[in-house]
């Protein structure tokens, strides 16, 4: 059993789809992409560390929104939204630098479909900032995509448009909990109510 728990009150942790601990990476995983800048794991490892250093001491929700919307490609050293960038865009990647044939194919319609940001204050209020679609706000339109990349035309009936959406603050609905506190009391007092199933949303926009 391998355990590796780290805590910090004055630092940050980053993630990019591969284990940090070399024991887990080398003994329990294979073909992780850790050292391969052509793969999203290696590229994002480098880019996220660059951005953490650049914004050290100034990380907040607004900065987090920018970080997960980043399009800088450290393999080609330029702005280039693709599979390697923090804001993932496989649908825009020609994959001319793919390192293995079983990885996603050129212009495959996949990638990030939402973004989320939270800090200690929003967490205390049981809130988070979320954005449906790409974190950068770039839209995806299936007909336009399939017309341009006909190799994926058979996917057209199953793909969905993802137009740009704004960052939105989501939070627990306090009125829901207040009203349902009375419901719970009534539920326990009245056995007849216990045969009913209660379903309700718990988030609000």
From TrEMBL:
Gene3D superfamilies: 3.60.60.20. This is Uncharacterized protein. It comes from viral metagenome.
């Amino acid at each position: 059993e391998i355990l590796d728990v780290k805590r910090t009150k004055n630092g940050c942790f980053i993630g990019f789809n591969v284990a940090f601990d070399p024991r887990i990476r080398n003994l329990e995983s294979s073909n992780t992409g850790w050292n391969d800048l052509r793969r999203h794991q290696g590229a994002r490892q480098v880019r996220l560390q660059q951005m953490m250093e650049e914004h050290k001491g100034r990380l907040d929700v607004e900065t987090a929104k920018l970080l997960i919307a980043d399009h800088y490609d450290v393999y080609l050293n330029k702005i280039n939204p693709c599979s390697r960038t923090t804001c993932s865009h496989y649908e825009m990647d020609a994959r001319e630098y793919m390192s293995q044939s079983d990885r996603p194919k050129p212009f495959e319609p996949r990638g990030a479909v939402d973004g989320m940001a939270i800090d200690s204050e929003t967490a205390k209020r049981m809130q988070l900032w979320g954005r449906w679609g790409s974190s950068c706000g770039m839209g995806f339109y299936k007909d336009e995509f399939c017309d341009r990349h006909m190799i994926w035309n058979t996917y057209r009936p199953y793909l969905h448009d993802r137009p740009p959406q704004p960052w939105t603050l989501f939070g627990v609905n306090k009125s829901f909990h207040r009203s349902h506190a009375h419901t719970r009391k009534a539920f326990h007092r009245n056995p007849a109510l216990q045969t009913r199933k209660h379903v309700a949303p718990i988030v609000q926009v």
